[in-house]
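Practice problem: predict the structure.
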Amino acid sequence: MRIKTAFLRYRTEVVIFTVGAILFLGGLANVVISNRTTPTSDLDLRPDVEGPAALGEIGPGPDEDIGEYVARKKELLANRSAGAGREESFAVVSFDSYRTAGQAESFLAASKLDAHSLHVRVPLPGYSSESISLAEGDVMASVDAYRQETLASLKEELSELEKIIPTVNDGEFRRVYQEDAESRRRAISILEGEAPVVYGVVVRGTHASLSKAGEVAGIRLVDVPDDPGVTPDTHRFRAIVPS
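Answer:
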């Protein structure tokens, strides 16, 4: 996860900082601010999953209308279910809101779909998504591991920011660091409170079972590839981030 902070231009009085202090603060800031994402925008509603480069992606493109995309993909799955219901395909399921690990696990158990990976995200502006492999199929353990790893990273970054802030005299520059610190405090509070962080899951099943899963309340889309032979080994399956 990465937060790209828009650093404000130094005012005239910042010249009083020594070159050594500027280099120190700038270098430390780069370390602290690594691991977050872009500011909030309408693109936050689009899929955003970090991972290795792939040959292609399954999910709406940056310039594609999400509503039209959802309608087109629902029609595609309905046609596949009617004409080739027993054939199998990978798909990415987008929930209409964030879910707890238990809720995601219950959906998978009820749908009887094979789970490949989860899409998770700290549900705050500016935090990017991550894909969690479910190689062993343990949803609860996988989400807990993500939560603990992310908490450790956030707490370390917060600690560094709290060391930096008292040394910054420029008001505007100091405000940027304070906002970053507050963002991390909020994220830590959310993760420690075990708030819902799962918003999608990559699955495999027959077209008939995938279509049935798409009819479950709270499911925004079961997105099957245009090419039913596509797999997560060649493409990134990207769920739609809840608004």
